[in-house]
Design a protein that fits this description.
alpha+beta; Rossmann fold; 4-stranded antiparallel sheet; globular
Length: 741
């Protein structure tokens, strides 16, 4: 599966603008009998003296036949309504044409010593990305794995389509470990191993291998992988992602014979909270292994180091490098040097260096100091340490040659845009990087330190719509309710008129310190071609200004997230980009908090809204398998302060009866392991019962997908067409209006 597709579903789809000049939105009802309102069965719970009503608690038993019947009824009704919207068919045809305008989409490129490349590729007309390799950029391309042809062994093997969620080649490229998830169920990820010469499976199969990418040891015959624990059939769902361990697997051995080498209970001298995640990383040619302990949602981790040849032999060799309180985000290794990326006393991050043989943070040497730019990543290649920056929304790269007093060099980029990631191998000079912008489609580049040139690898084929000339991007900063300056990106056709009538799609996210970086994918042009405006509000809770921006929208400060979003909506209206009747808001996953609270606090600002696989009931989120790992980000009802913060951000509990809400489309995946589908069901039921606007509240369910995984390209295109058509219908574009009877 393409990395950009996952981003498009979770974040980038939030960027979808709207089409054409519009008239006033029609109030004409769609010619279908409205689907029924769900039964109300109140459950009252006392939180620190506050009596909270939960009228649809019973829907949390999502497998209950009554709940399933109601959800299926909603889905059937939604599909009937959406597919009957005039012009949807033409929109879908254009989306498919643009989405397949390049011969293929390439992602997740790995470059090994010997000029060996591994990558995923989705060919034009195909539904699921496959795994390929080649020797040299101009070498023959070899298909290694079609996930749909893999026979899975787990209990969910027949659940929907199969997708690659990760892969890791051995250091010599002779083997590759591949994680495959059925039907979007990441908790059921299976790890299979392919011998690259024969392209056959070795027979090694590991179940519950969801937690992290495998890391190969120097012998190229064994690797370390993270696994979820085996649970009893009656175990509570909150236990699913707890007590994670990393195991050593030797090719040819059975999973049950593998030894735990890190994580919960694996190392007696290292106490690991059962709710934390643990992993082990190795690097080609390095004598060290790095152990990491993380909450799963926080940027900082605890790091440990051990000789790589001690793995599987002695768990007593681990030594602490940094604790969670040290604010270290990432570690890169070169020889006996450890480079640490940390926000300790530097909210926008700095890079320090310590001796791997005796790591001592108090004696660390400063390599890159803090500045206005946010340091987002580090990567060690053979020649230098490469440092990735986010500078006012623009991606930059620094090169720091290894040595005692190196001169910091700035790498000249081919254009100003965002950098998806840096990919390095300590045996190979230079780095690979993927670049894009609001007006340029992604391309995969390589930097050669000898020529100092950044060149297009041509791994990503050229498409007919990669560089549109009639689309313009504008960056502004707007004042939020409390005076904070919030970045707002506005992308629109150059011929746009600021008359308040432009259908506009406003998106935001605001969690985990994740930034919404510039990007363009050809399918968006189906929208720009019709004069739509795309606006991205870089709300607090994200990482655009480093950890300080994240902390300003986390836990008790979470209201800043949706109030920044509201301020961006007001700016767009005041400056005549749009009007409330022509404005739609979007939030996905944790962005469900943002859009849910925006429409419950200011329903008058929006004509439509989409909540994609979103969290809506925050008071009950921690009862789910993924809720416990999210406590460090959002809080817990087990404390009064945590309850108050969660209640404030819980859109489900802020829906008010007899209120005119905008039209809302909620989408979910039946196999979603991150945000349980009952979250969308409860929010749908509550909105349907409360709204007086007469506008539709629709629930769309992908029964073969999860949280962005599991569906094929054709399903993705259908979802995109449904979402956009829904908005264009509700924002009044004439060609999307049903005919009057």
């Amino acid at each position: 599966m393409r990395t950009w597709r996952l981003l498009f579903g979770r974040f980038i789809f939030a960027l979808a603008p709207l089409m054409a000049q519009s008239t006033s939105p029609s109030t004409q009802a769609h010619p279908f009998v409205a689907s029924r309102v769900a039964p109300v069965r109140p459950v009252f719970e006392n939180y620190y003296g506050d009596k909270i009503d939960d009228p649809y608690r019973y829907m949390e038993n999502f497998k209950d036949p009554e709940v399933q019947a109601w959800v299926k009824e909603q889905d059937n009704y939604s599909h009937a309504v959406l597919t009957s919207i005039p012009a949807r068919g033409r929109l879908l045809a254009r989306i498919r044409e643009l989405d397949q305008s390049a011969p293929a989409q390439v992602s997740n490129v790995h470059r090994l010593a010997g000029n060996i490349y591994f990558y995923q590729k989705l060919l034009k007309g195909e539904d699921i990305a496959k795994l390929y390799m080649r020797n040299g950029l101009h070498g023959e391309e070899v298909l290694l794995l079609d996930p749909e042809k893999v026979m899975l062994a787990g209990p969910s093997s027949a659940k929907g389509k199969k997708a690659i969620v990760y892969f890791a080649p051995s250091h010599d490229g002779k083997y590759v470990a591949v994680g495959i998830a059925p039907g979007g169920s990441e908790n059921d990820t299976e790890l299979h191993v392919i011998e690259t010469a024969s392209r056959h499976e070795t027979g090694d199969v590991i179940l519950r291998a969801e937690t992290d990418d495998p890391n190969w040891l120097p012998d190229n015959r064994s690797f370390i992988d993270g696994r979820l624990q085996t649970l009893a059939a009656d175990a509570p769902s909150t236990e699913v992602r707890q007590k994670v361990r990393s195991y050593l697997h030797v090719l040819g051995s059975k999973q049950d014979d593998d030894k735990p080498v890190f994580g919960y209970g694996a190392v007696p001298s290292i106490a690991v909270d059962p709710t934390y995640f643990a992993s082990v990383a190795t690097q080609p040619s390095s004598t060290y292994a790095i152990g990491t302990i993380n909450t799963g949602v926080s940027p900082n981790s605890a790091f440990y180091i051990a000789p790589v040849d001690a793995i599987g032999k002695s768990n007593a060799a681990w030594r602490k490098v940094a604790d969670l309180s040290d604010g270290v985000k990432d570690v890169a290794v070169h020889g006996d040097d450890l480079y640490l990326l940390t926000f300790k006393d530097a909210p926008r991050y700095k890079v320090i260096r310590v001796d791997a043989r005796l790591p001592n943070l108090s004696a660390a040497e400063l390599v890159v100091g803090p500045s206005e730019a946010v340091i987002t990543g580090i990567a060690a290649a053979r020649d230098a340490l490469y440092v990735q920056l986010l500078d006012g929304g623009i991606g930059r790269v620094l090169r720091i040659p290894f040595g005692t007093h190196p001169a910091v060099e700035r790498v000249a980029m081919p254009f100003e845009g965002s950098i998806d990631s840096l990919v390095s191998d300590p045996r190979v000079p230079g780095v690979l990087l993927t670049m894009t912008s609001w007006t340029k489609a992604p391309k995969i580049y390589s930097f050669d330190p000898h020529s100092k040139a950044v060149r297009d690898t041509r791994l990503q084929p050229v498409g007919a719509y990669d560089d549109p000339s009639d689309v313009k991007a504008l960056e502004v900063k707007i004042k939020s309710y409390d005076g904070a300056l919030v970045p707002l990106s506005i992308v629109y056709p150059k011929a746009l008129k600021l008359d308040g009538s432009n259908p506009t799609h406003l998106t935001g996210y605001g969690a985990y310190g994740v930034s919404q970086n510039p990007s363009l994918f050809p399918a968006l042009l189906a929208l720009y071609e019709q004069g739509g405006v795309l606006a991205t509000c870089h709300v607090r809770g994200g990482g655009e200004y480093g950890e300080e921006w994240h902390l300003a929208g986390k836990g008790p400060t979470k209201p800043n997230t949706w109030r920044d979003f509201i301020a961006c909506a007001e700016y767009l209206i005041q400056n005549k980009y749009t009007s409330p009747t022509h404005l739609s808001g979007f939030g996905a996953s944790a962005g469900g908090i943002l859009i849910g609270r925006a429409i419950t606090e200011r329903p008058d600002l929006f004509g439509a809204a989409i909540i994609g696989v979103g969290i809506s009931d925050m008071l009950r989120f921690e009862t789910t398998s993924n809720g416990v790992p999210n406590i460090p980000e959002f809080g817990s009802t087990k404390t009064e302060q945590g309850f108050k913060a969660l209640y404030a951000m819980s859109a489900y509990h802020h829906v008010k009866d007899k209120t005119a809400y905008p039209a809302v489309l909620l989408t979910t995946g039946a196999n979603d392991p991150r945000v349980d589908p009952w979250q969308s069901a409860k929010m749908t039921a509550r909105l349907k019962a409360a709204t007086t606007s007469g506008k539709p509240i629709l629930l769309r369910v992908d029964y073969g997908g999860g949280h962005g995984f599991g569906s094929g390209e054709s399903e993705f295109q259908e979802l995109l067409a449904d979402d956009i058509s829904f908005e264009l219908w509700q924002l009044g574009l004439p060609q999307f209006q049903p005919q009057k009877p």
